[in-house]
Amino acid sequence: MAMNNLFIFVEGIDDKKFVNEVLANLFYKKSIIVIPITYQIKKNNDINKQIIRCAKSKECSYVFFSDLDSHSYPCITSRKNARVNEYNALNQDNILIVCEEIESWYLAGLDNHLDQFKDFDIGDNTEGITKEKLSEMIDKSSFENKVDFFAEVCKTYNLELAMKRNKSFKYFLSKFNLID
User: pLDDT value at position 35?
Assistant: First the structure.
């Protein structure tokens, strides 16, 4: 069976780790190889060129992750419009808004019944979680730093729990037929 490539454009290193450690295996089961591209560290022109290559290719496609940043954008449509203004090659249909930030997806799959996460009080909805809120939680925990924390979450990620706690994560999984 031939494999197709899916380029997932992500903002930063933590986002890339999530794609590699949590999402890549789900896509692989569907015969799709995931290739994360960190757009924060590249020039907009270079990202536009990569998007154009993906759009023209029959062997690959792309999705562009963007944080909602609700403090700056009142709704998903305004955030998508801003991203298209930044990266003019982007198609709005290929933009996926993460509510609020990718950290909310990490936290959604954290099983706080496990000993290593007993310090974390996770509610039923993680969509409002920001980098800052998660950093505060990690600082109050037994983890030395966020790198160790993210690594441990990825090892024990609870997909079912994540879908219950975060609508944008569940939407992403269902959009790509990664859930039954």
Answer: 96
